[in-house]
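User: Predict the structure for this protein chain, please.
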Amino acid sequence: MSSPCALLAWTFLTLLGLGVAQEDLTPCSPIVPRREWRALPSTCKQRLDLPVRCVVVSHTAGSPCDTPASCMRQVQNVQHYHVRTRGWCDVTYNFLIGEDGLVYEGRGWNSKSIGISFMGNYMDRAPPQRALRAAQSLLACGVARGALRTNYEVKGHRDVQDTLSPGDRLYEIIQTWPHYRY
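Assistant: Here is the predicted structure, written as structure tokens:
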């Protein structure tokens, strides 16, 4: 499904609250796979030791995106910056959340912790509810798939590194999530 119609299908399914058939029967919302946003091949070798205990929430601090087309471009831009400019093996985030309410696969369930980055700058404004719901759904999916421990911890990027990420407004929100731990 790699055509402009695929974007419409993802959007339609998300708006209806329906999921695309997954490989297993976990209650997961659709995740836009790497092939749909035309990711560069990853050269990373490290695999995820499941289930993971820690989820780190960040923001890209760049422009937000609110349509599947603009979010696909934004994910490509993030990956290009990480791979071509920084010289890393792939986009560093496991998943990226767009203001369109969709989850975009980065490295997927594949690292030491799960990094979820909201695309946009959330210093002075909060992400829309559909983006926050997408993140919560992704976390529930991770538990259901056995990729996250049931007692996983959510941390803000600033809790683990000297940074302003995930932005003041998003940080205030994740501090209210049940699994948040400072």
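The first strand starts at residue 31 and ends at 32.
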